[in-house]
Amino acid sequence: MMKAFYEVGLIKSIRFFFSTLFLFLFNFSLFPSVRRIALKMVGAKIGADTVIHEVRFFNAYRTGFQGLSIGKSCFLGTDCLIDLADKVILEDDVTLAERVTILTHINVGYKDHPLQQFFPSSQSEVRIKRGAFIGANATIVSGISIGECAFVAAGSMVIHDVAPWTLVAGAPARMVRSIK
Question: pLDDT (tens digit, 9 = 90+) per residue, 14-25?
Answer without folding.
Answer: 888 888 888 888
